[in-house]
Structure formats: structure tokens, C-alpha cells
Sequence to fold (707 residues):
Amino acid sequence: MRIKKNKNINIEHSLKSIADSVDSDVVIVRNDRCDVLLMNEAASKRVDAELRSVTNCKSGYSHIFPELCDNCHHKADSKAEAGAFDIKDRNGRVFSVTRNSIEWIDGKPATAFILRDVDEERSLKTRMYNLAYYDQLTGIPNRQKLKEDFEAALKDGKNDRYCGILAMFDLDNFKIINDNYGHNTGDEMLIRITAYLENNDDFKGHLYRLGGDEFVLFYKERLSNFESQAAVRSYYQEMLQKSLLSYTMPNIEYKCTLSIGVALYPAHGETLSELLRKADIALYKAKTEGRNRVVLFEDKYDASKKFKDLYINMQPILLKNGNTYGYELVDSDKSEKEDDGTLSLSQFDRTLDALGMNDIKDNTRYFISFTKQLFNRAVLKNLPRNKFVIQINASDRCTDEHMQLYKQLKSNGYLLLLSNIDNSNMDMKLLALAEYCKFAPEGISVSEQISLISANSTKTFIATDVSTNEEFEIAQHRGFSLFQGYYFNQQVIIKKEKDIEPLKANYFRLLQLTSTDNYVDFNEISAVISSDVALSYKLLRLLNSASVGLRTRVSSILTALTFLGEENLKQWISVLALRGVSDEKPLELVRMSLIRARFGENLAYCFKPPMDTKHVFMVGLLSLLHIALDKTKEELLDEIPVADKIRKSLLGNDGPYSELLEFYKHYEYANWNEITRFSEEHDIGCYAINNAYVNAVKWCNDLINAY
Fold:
């Protein structure tokens, strides 16, 4: 027995030696009296001399840390659990505490506390954070904090509809005060104005300083809080009017007022840089109109025209088998002022960033029109040579200077395409430079077409304006290998008795079950999928893939659906259903249907009153499905029960979503005048339309790649 006791004493001494070497306080206690079993040297030094002989924590060590007992599970009413927490000592210094239940050397339970002084470390982090994210003069958040808060707001709103504003303002007459009374007086004016605004509940927590006398107010609200876009505008305009006062200081002759420019989120943009740009334009308008006023951005204020009526559409270029070879980026920017020294990157950097083309790893080609801006270093740096083909218009006059520019592009590694060839503008020098040649078969006589294509066997010829299957067959016979148009988007009525194959019927049933306005019935969906081996395999493969990231593999269909969740389930079924029923048609048909669905869904909230997003999504999704099945729309809708509003819109011109379907067609065919008319008629900004399309394309790409 004595040997065992000596052994325990030796172990206890060893434990204390180890604890003494730790750069933290270590205290081990047990039972309701909190008897101290071990206290290392650092903890002992922290206790007053008269308390060092006390053998329990309650009467000794915890006097230094009043909050320690509250976080100890030995306290009768304590709900403390093992883990980490922060407390302060009686001098206010912050300590990080780790608490664990342990078994002491005698085999009985005990509690170990490890306390580390983190006050200086936390204070340093706080100071560094404040230096990085807060304005040192006024104490309010700075531009960097605005960027962080804006990104966090976007992330929080991913699964909901949000709206808001970014209001930029500066001080009228501030420069006069600075020049006449000195920078110290100017600084004091900034401090007092920001303090006043921060004391107002409407502005508190929303104010940021960009620099100088420029400030921003940023707000985000649920869209459901407002009846319409007009209500959003009215709400924020009324709020901002409260700041339009004359701000002054003792013995200062001049008064400062505020000029405020406002950009709406997401109507005027979904990125911080774009909203700041639009708000700045509106601020300039407020200045020119007399100052001391609130002005909301409108497209007509955008003097740079960089985004004025600019839409981007991706028109597919297809192979003989109907697969997608690439896309022509067609935009509505008709500016002819390329030689005035102004650089607009709207067609290049903006498209790359928005559509995520830098992330695309496949061999898809993107065809863009030639412009001198291609020679800007920023453009050349960001425009991938292996993805982009530069189009040269044969109708444009080709000077020696132009020829040198084209050769320079070739030397930079870009492929060239000669477009719009006809009998009047055939330039063999240009043709020799190009790897691609694109023209409408009707523009050149049949014999010359065949002769031209056969004499240039190393070049790839693209037939444009191919709108029917017959035109496709003719172009293919003449030697074209790529085709641009919508021949696959033509309704071809065949035998009435053709029915949906049994397995394809499952896709229709799934579409119906997931498009309901009520809750999604996972049991019924599970029954449909379980009856289809191919669907079951695809679902389980998706759930068991590394991309989903499940820790355990699943084999039950119902469990798989639960793991996938309602939103991901709807997306997965949308892609599989469209692919399943259009397996004999180009994948481009699936892509167009998905883009239409998401495009409309993105725009639904912009209408007055807002459209039903679920209905809009289904209208877009089903709008081209009859083509994939070689059926009439009536036959299709007899097989897929849908809401009356959806059916009426798909079958006629007087449904609630019929005009939206016409809008899709105009956008796909780049009828930009009609798009502008539509935007003006519905008071939807061109940026909102363009942004909705770009986001739909990106969403579609991500969805198809994922599933």
C-alpha cells in the first residue's frame, strides 16, 4: 500500500513538473468544495500570498477570476460543459480557458482548467482589424469593410430574394471650408456629420467612408417587404431625405449640405464596383441639378454608355451531329468610336468574368468581333488564345493598316474568322489569313460556294442563317462543317401515334411532382425513380460522388433524395428530364430550355407586380420540349398536367407569360431593338436584363457540368 502511495506521489510530482513548463495557468480541482489537486507555478504566482495556502479553488484561485466558478460544472446550478471559453480577471484582462473532465491518478474524476493570457494578443488583433477596416478619423467602417459586408450580404441572400441600395454622397462646399479654414476644421466637420448620422437609427450601422468627403450608405432588405420596385424606390428616397440638412460649425461662414446618388440592388447591378459606378453617376447628376438632393440612377445618366443598352447573347455554332462546337458572343454595343482613345472592356473582361469562361476546361470556342481594343495589354492578357476566335468582317474596308493589325493578332496566337463573304467582297489575302470562313449560303452562287470550299480544304467553313432542317442538309451537302442558326429549334410534326416512351414518361412525372406549389412529396418521387433503373443509378452515383461530399455512401432512394434536398433535387430533375426526352436532339436544346427557365426566374421580381417565379421557371423549361419530342404543344401539354396559366401562355399569345416567351425569342435572335422596347415598357433596366441572362448562362453551365 505504501509503495502505491509513493508511486502516486512520484506521478503527481512529474505532472506538476510538466504543468510548470506550460506557459499557461493549470489548475486541477475536484468535488463540490473544488479542492485543488494541482496548481502549477504560473497559477500560484497569480494568487495573492495570503491565499496560496488555501486548498480549494473557491476561496483561493477563483478570487482572481470571478467568472471562473460560473463556468465550472461543480457549481450546483451550473450548466457548464467541457470546452473553451473566455473570461476576464479582476483587472479586466482577457484569458482563454480550456476546461476538460479528466481521471486523476487515483482513478477518480476531476476537472482541469488551463488559462492562457490572450489580452495583449486579442488587443493587437483588434487594433489591426480596426486599422484595416475602420476609418481612423471618423471611426466608421471604410471601403474594405464595405466590400466585406457587401460580399457577406450577397452570400446570406443566396437562397432568398433581396433588394437594397447603395447611396453615395459627399459634402457640398466642403472644399471651400477646407481651403478657407484649414484641414483641421474640415476634419472636425467630417467627424461631426458622421457622428450625427450614426446617431440616427435610420443610418446607424449602414455608413461607410470611402475617403475624403465621400461616404456610402448600404442597405439590404427582403424583397417580400415591398409591393413593387416603385415601393423600394419610394422607401429609400424618403429615408435619405432625412439627411438633407444644412450642417455647420461655430464661427464658420459656409454650410455643408449633402448630394446623394443612389443605385438600386439588384436592378442596377449585383457587384459592388458596378453599384458604386452607378451611384457615382447619380451623385454627379445631383451635383449638376443644384446639390442638396437625392437622385436615383437611371440608364440615361450613364454618359460613358459603357453599359447603356448593352446585352450579350451566346448564339451556338453546331457540328454536323448537332453537338455544340462553340458560341458567337453577340452584343448590342453599336459604338463606332473605337479610335477616340476610349477603352471599353464590356465585350471581353466583363463577359469573361460574368460567364466564368476562364474556368471552362473544355474545347469550346468563343467567336468575338474584331476591335482595336484587342491590342490593349489588359485585353490580350485576359483573353485566352485557346478559346477565342476573332471575327473579321469582310464587308469592312480593309486598309494596309488593318491588314497589319490582323497579322499582329495572328502573331499573338489568335485564330481568325472571315465573316459575311459574298460575291462583292471576296478578298483572297484576308481569306489566306483566316482559319475559319463564315457566310450565308444564299450570299454566293452554288458553284462558287462549292469551288471556294473545295479549294480551301484546310479551312473550316461555317454556314449561317440555317433555320430549317432542309437548309441544314443543303449546307452540309455543299461542304460546310459547322452551322449557325436554329434549325434544331424547329417544330417538326410526325405521326400522331408517336407516344412518349415508357421510361421517358417518368421524366414527365418527375417534372410535375417537383413543379408543384405545395411541398415536395419525396415518397412519391422515390417511387418513380425506384421504378427506373437508369434514374436510380444516376441518382445514387451523384450522391456517392466526391462532389457531393457525403461521409457515408447511400443505397436507399428515399435516403438519397433526403440528402440531396429539395432545391438540388429540382435542378437535378430539370437537367435529367430535358436530357432524357431530347436524347436525339442537340444538347443545345437542353441548354436553351434551362437558360430560358432561369432567365425568366431572375427577371420575375422586376415586373409590376412580380411574376410567380415557379410558374416562370416551368414556362421556360417546357417552352422547347415539344420540339425534342417532335410533338405539337397541345400534345405535349395533354401529357404533362400544368397550371392553367402555364398552359395558356405556352399555347397562345394571351397568357400571363406569353410576352415573356416572345422576349426569349427576341433575345436569342439578338433583336436588340425589341429587347430595348420590352425593357422600357416594363421599366426594367437594361443592366438588370443583361445581368439576369449572364447569371442564367453561368447557372446553366454549372448545372450541366455538375449533373
